[in-house]
Each structure stands twice: as structure tokens, then as C-alpha cells.
Amino acid sequence: xxxxxxxxxxxxxxxxxxxxxxxxxxxxxxxxxxxxxxxxxxxxxxxxxxxxxxxxxxxxxxxxxxxxxxxxxxxxxxxxxxxxxxxxxxxxxxxxxxxxxxxxxxxxxxxxxxxxxxxxxxxxxxxxxxxxxxxxxxxxxxxxxxxxxxxxxxxxxxxxxxxxxxxxxxxxxxxxxxxxxxxxxxx
Length: 187
Fold this sequence. Notes:
There is one protein chain. By secondary structure, the chain is mainly β. It has a single domain (43-186), classed as Sandwich (Immunoglobulin-like), CATH 2.60.40. Helix content is 15%, strand content 37%. It has two helices and eleven strands; from the N terminus they run αββββββαβββββ. The protein has helices at residues 5-26, 103-108; strands at 43-49, 55-61, 72-73, 76-79, 83-92, 100-101, 113-119, 127-128, 141-145, 150-160, 174-186. The strands form two sheets. Strands 1, 2, 3, 5, 6, 8 and 9 form a seven-stranded antiparallel sheet that branches. The longest helix has 22 residues, at 5-26. It is globular.
């Protein structure tokens, strides 16, 4: 069968159009750079400094990540009727030979992070002392005042890219890490 000039041109156009679609479909899309991924945080360290300058540290650790072994958290013991400076550290200890301190990254990207707290029992929620560059709370540096002796829990959640202007910014953004501690306040 003999191909006419018009049919040959349609054939060439179809091949050209198909190859153009194939070529553009396979090229990497540089217009959409990878999103800022949340940090891998396996360890949370709480450093409580009492009015005399004595610091006691407590740790939450989940070095194998979600879905593996359950996390381990130290039980916190604090003195009653005391105001503590509470400083919080974050680490990636997933590779014991290459432990990464994530705290400075959180501080440098303060506008993209927020520490949220929840307390039960005899504990009050810590008061945030530090802020990001826009004056919104961060939470790496807080103050916790204990009252009467008793028991409770302290939960800490590090949020990534929260909406700090929302009515409840702690329910926005992604959770980088969540740690819960049992607390005993004693006389």
C-alpha cells in the first residue's frame, strides 16, 4: 500500500507528538523541590536546673524508631514547691557511631518548630521562655514550677511547621517526636 503525502505527514506528526509526550513525561520535575522533611529524633533529654544551680537530666529514648521496641523514659523526681529552669535537647541516636544533636537545628529553624506541653496530676504546664525570630513561642527553654507532693505525667511534643497563629497551634503541623514521662514530686 502506497502512503500519500498527507498520510505520511500525519504519521510523522503522531510520532513526533508521542515522542514529545514521552520525553517530557520522563524528565525530572525541578519546579517541585523536595519538601523540608521532619528531623529524625530518637532521644529527648530534659535538663532541670534548681534554684541552687544543680542540674538533673532525664531521658526519653526510642533509638530503633517507630514500630520497633517500645520507647524507654526515665522517671522524673522533682522537689515540691520549687521553680526549675527546664532546657530540652533533641538527638538522633539511630546510628551509635554518629550521634547527631538536633537541638541547634531546631533553634536555627525556630519559626518552623514549636514545643507543646501537656501535664497531668500535680504538675502545671511549663512556661515557655524563648521565642522565634517573629516573637512566637519556641519552647527549648522553659520554666516549670512544682506545687505539692504527688504524681503526674509530663508530655512533650516537638511540632514541625505548625501554624503558630492558630487558636491551638499544637494540633497543626507534623510531629517530629512525642515523649511522655512519669513524674514524682516529693517533699
